[in-house]
Amino acid sequence: MISLHDLIIELKKRKINLGPDPKATVSMYSELGIIPPPKITARIDSDLEPDVSYPVDTINKIIEIKELKNKGLELDEIKDSYALDYVRDTIKDILETEDKAKLKQLAQLLSQGSDQLSSILEAPLIKVIETNNSKELSKLLSLFAGQSFYSLLDSNTSLEQYNVNEARKSLFRSMFYLSIVCLKLARKSKDKDLEAIAFETYNQMVMGPIEKATKKVQEEFRTSLKKYMKTKKKS
């Protein structure tokens, strides 16, 4: 544990600005549940204020909060972060196949910057939405619903550990899979209102981030390809 006084001093040493009233700022973070609650111990002399202390890792939690605040805690950043993982994992899966035609197509799409790459990466999701094979659909929906559920549990665990950023990432991952499940169920039940909302959510939470992440991956590929070609010329 570290006393509130020492906590504030340590954060000042690390140039973390807690505003005009650092005690009030720390107290507010605690009330919001984004840092652990303090341990309050009454002093023998009742005229003195009680001792207030926090777990030592609260220092790092507050530093993380300030960093996230400086970034604006933009949901788009978290969307892009998860979508980037999804895009890279999907490309990795394609690279592990022995289908030379697919590998050649992927290489062309990466180097040319074609928008078709987004369609290829969306294909596994479209399979869930469009398939009419009841046995396959049941399996896919269970898989995606399970992914959503476990991500929600991860989000809750991260919140309990006061890890705001990881909680938001897990929450986005949950919404990513859940929006696909809802879209399919809405289409199957022919619920037009639910389908409209689910489709809008799917575009916003899934396709938008995938398209942005795809462009980033393509740019990374082209940059690494240029470096490789320069190395080849020198050798």
Task: Walk me through what this model shows.
This protein is mainly alpha-helical. It has two domains: about 1-70, no CATH class; about 75-235, no CATH class. The protein has nine helices and three strands, in the order βααββααααααα. Strands 1-3-2 form a three-stranded antiparallel sheet. The longest helix is centred in the last third of the chain and has 43 residues, at about 190-235. The chain is flat, with a radius of gyration of 24 Å. It starts with a strand and ends with a helix. The mean pLDDT is about 85.
Write the layout of secondary structure elements.
Layout: E1 2-3, H1 4-13, H2 22-32, E2 39-41, E3 51-54, H3 58-71, H4 75-95, H5 100-112, H6 116-130, H7 134-160, H8 164-189, H9 192-234
Antiparallel strand pairs: 1-3, 2-3
Name a few traits of the molecule.
mainly alpha; 2 domains; 235 residues; 3-stranded antiparallel beta sheet; flat
Taking the alpha carbons of the first and last residues, their distance comes to 58 Å
Shape: flat
Radius of gyration: 24 Å
Percent of residues in beta strands: under 5%
Major sheet characteristics? 3 strands, antiparallel
Please, how many helices? 9
Q: Main sheet: which strands, in order across?
A: 1-3-2
